[in-house]
Design the sequence.
C-alpha cells in the first residue's frame, strides 16, 4: 500500500510542525520547520514508521480518516488520482493561524479570531484549557528553504487565512511561474498584492471554503458576509483562476448542500467536499436519528450509531457560541432546529 503524500509531500501545520498530511492525526512531535530541516523530518521515527506500516498494508493510527473512508467504499484522499513525484514535488503549508473568522468546527490553532474568543470564554470554552498564542512563523529564510526544493511542482496554501499572511507575496515571488498553486481561502478578503502575484503563475486553483449559501455560511463561518465572498469569487474567475468550492460537510450544513451545488453550477465551478470527522459533535455519524432518516445524500456517513453525549455536546457548545456572539442558530438554520432543541 502506498501513499503519495508520505512519499512526495511536505505538510506543515500552523505551528510550523511537520505533519504526515493535512488530515493525519498523529501526536505532536518535536520536528518543526523552525528547528529542523526537511531532511531531518523525512528521516524521523514518525515519518519512517508510517512509511513502513504502509508498505505492510497497515494504516498508521494517524491515518484513521482515510482508513474509515476506504472501509465505507468512499474514495479517500490517499486514493485520489493525482500525480505526485518524483522526489518532494508538493508542499502543503500553513504559515500561521491568522484568520478573521470564527468557524464553529475550527480550532484556535487554526484561527487567531477563535483564539481571542477562547480566551474570552474562559471556563466555558469548548477547547478546555489549551495554551496557544497567535502563530505566525513566516521568515524569509524558511520560505527560501521551502521554495528552493528542486523537484517542486505544486504548492498548496491554506491557514488560518492565507490572504492575511505577512510575507506571502514574497514567498510567491520565490517560486517559478510553472509551479502550480492551490490556494484555499475563506473568500472574505481582497488582497491586491497577493492576487497580483498569483496572476503570474501558469495555473492557480483558488478554492473557496464555503459551507452554504447566505446565512448558512455566515453562521457556520461566523464573521463572514456571503455577498462579499461572492464578489471575491467573481474577481478570481475574471483573473482566469480555476475556482472551486470546498465545503466541510457536517450536521450544520447537511440539509443545505443542494443549494451550494446549485450555486456552483450557476458559476460552472466544481465542489470538493471535505467530510468532517472532528470535532465529533458536528460529524454526520452523530446526527440524531430523525435527521439521518430525512437526509437524501451522504447516507454512507450516517450508518454509525450516534453517540448521545455528542448530541448533548452539540447543543451545549452551540448555546455557548450563540451567547458569545449574540446570535441565535434558529435565525440562520431554522430547518436544522426542527431536529435539535437549541432553545
Sequence:
Amino acid at each position: 500500500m502506498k501513499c503519495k503524500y508520505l512519499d512526495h509531500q511536505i505538510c506543515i501545520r500552523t505551528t510550523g510542525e511537520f505533519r504526515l498530511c493535512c488530515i493525519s492525526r498523529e501526536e505532536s512531535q518535536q520536528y518543526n520547520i523552525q528547528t529542523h530541516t526537511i531532511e531531518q523530518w523525512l528521516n524521523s521515527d514518525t515519518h519512517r514508521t508510517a512509511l513502513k506500516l504502509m508498505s505492510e498494508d497497515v494504516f498508521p493510527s494517524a491515518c484513521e480518516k482515510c482508513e474509515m473512508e476506504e472501509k465505507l467504499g468512499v474514495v479517500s484522499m490517499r486514493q485520489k488520482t493525482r500525480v505526485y513525484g518524483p522526489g518532494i514535488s508538493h508542499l502543503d503549508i500553513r504559515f500561521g493561524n491568522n484568520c478573521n473568522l470564527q468557524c464553529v468546527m475550527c480550532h484556535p490553532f487554526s484561527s487567531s479570531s477563535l483564539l481571542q474568543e477562547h480566551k474570552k470564554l474562559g471556563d466555558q470554552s469548548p477547547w478546555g484549557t489549551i495554551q496557544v498564542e497567535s502563530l505566525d512563523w513566516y521568515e524569509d529564510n524558511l520560505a527560501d528553504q521551502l521554495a528552493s526544493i528542486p523537484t517542486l511542482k505544486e504548492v498548496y496554501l491554506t491557514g488560518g487565512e492565507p490572504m492575511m499572511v505577512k510575507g506571502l507575496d514574497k514567498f510567491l515571488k520565490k517560486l517559478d511561474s510553472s509551479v502550480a498553486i492551490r490556494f484555499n481561502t475563506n473568500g472574505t478578503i481582497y488582497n491586491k498584492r497577493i492576487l497580483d502575484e498569483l496572476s503570474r503563475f501558469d495555473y492557480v486553483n483558488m478554492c473557496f471554503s464555503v459551507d452554504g449559501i447566505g446565512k448558512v455560511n455566515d453562521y457556520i463561518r461566523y464573521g463572514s458576509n456571503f455577498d462579499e465572498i461572492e464578489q471575491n469569487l467573481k474577481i478570481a474567475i475574471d483573473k482566469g483562476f480555476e475556482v472551486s468550492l470546498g465545503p466541510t460537510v457536517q450536521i450544520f450544513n447537511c440539509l443545505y448542500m443542494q443549494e451550494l451545488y446549485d450555486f456552483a453550477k450557476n458559476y460552472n465551478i466544481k465542489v470538493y467536499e471535505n467530510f468532517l470527522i472532528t470535532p465529533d459533535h458536528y460529524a454526520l455519524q452523530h446526527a440524531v436519528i430523525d435527521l439521518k432518516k430525512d437526509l437524501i445524500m451522504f447516507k454512507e456517513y450516517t450508518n454509525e450509531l450516534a453517540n448521545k453525549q455528542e448530541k448533548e455536546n452539540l447543543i451545549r457548545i452551540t448555546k455557548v457560541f450563540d451567547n458569545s456572539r449574540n446570535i441565535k442558530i434558529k435565525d440562520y438554520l431554522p430547518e436544522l432546529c426542527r431536529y435539535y432543541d437549541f432553545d
In short: The two ends are 49 Å apart (CA to CA). The chain has one domain: 89-338. The mean pLDDT is 94.
